[in-house]
Specification:
With 196 residues, the chain is an alpha+beta fold. The protein contains five helices and nine strands, in the order αβββααααββββββ. It has a six-stranded antiparallel β-sheet with strand order 4-9-5-6-7-8, with no helix packed on it.
Length: 196
């Protein structure tokens, strides 16, 4: 896909950054249907080219953020070799530099969140509650809640199973499956349906 074809998915003024980052690399961009497990993906192909997939249903600033994340993999591997950890120090530094370079393309309120994220870039978008809230909270038109909105004793449905929230641990929430009494840890931003 030519880089210009991405314009409809992107915020304004992002093409100069992408042209610089793409450089002479052969990159195949595939726009995919919305996936629940990931927003984007990077792979080096057997022929030496690179393939990046990104969900089609992302808001333009998030689309650019995810594309930057995936391009950081490519640039880190090219610069440091394929023996580096996929989300190790080299990737973090590359991603941080790219976000700093392009910070002005993000809306003002998002710039502050991205700058905070830059202190320790996370591999998984869901590990940054501020980014998740910024991009997702207004987009949900359903009756789902975040598990962090519950209080101990609340019951909820997750993947068609019923659980009870027991307590907040250091980062996650300890919950009990009401059918088999097994304990599970849930992340704060797990999307659940509260039982009223």
């Amino acid at each position: 896909m030519p880089i210009q074809n991405l314009e409809k998915f992107l915020p304004e003024n992002t093409l100069p950054y992408l042209k610089r980052w793409f450089g002479e690399h052969t990159i195949h961009i595939k726009i995919t249907k919305g996936r629940n497990t990931k927003l984007g993906d990077y792979r080096k192909m057997p022929d030496g080219s690179h393939k990046i997939t990104i969900n089609h249903n992302l808001a333009p600033p998030l689309f650019f953020f995810v594309l930057t994340h995936e391009l950081a993999h490519l640039l880190a591997f090219v610069s440091f070799g394929h023996r580096i950890a996929p989300h190790g120090t080299e990737w973090k530094n590359t991603f941080r530099d790219m976000l700093l370079e392009s910070i002005k393309v993000y809306p003002d309120d998002l710039q502050a969140i991205v700058k905070d994220f830059l202190r320790s870039p996370k591999a998984n978008f869901m590990s940054s509650p501020e980014l998740v809230r910024y991009f997702r909270i207004e987009d949900f038109q359903d009756e789902l809640s975040y598990i962090e909105d519950l209080v101990p004793g609340d019951r909820f449905i997750y993947r068609n199973e019923v659980y009870r929230l027991e307590e907040k641990m250091k980062k996650n929430y300890l919950c009990t499956h009401t059918g088999n009494a097994k304990k599970y840890a849930f992340r704060p931003l797990a999307r659940i349906e509260k039982i009223h």
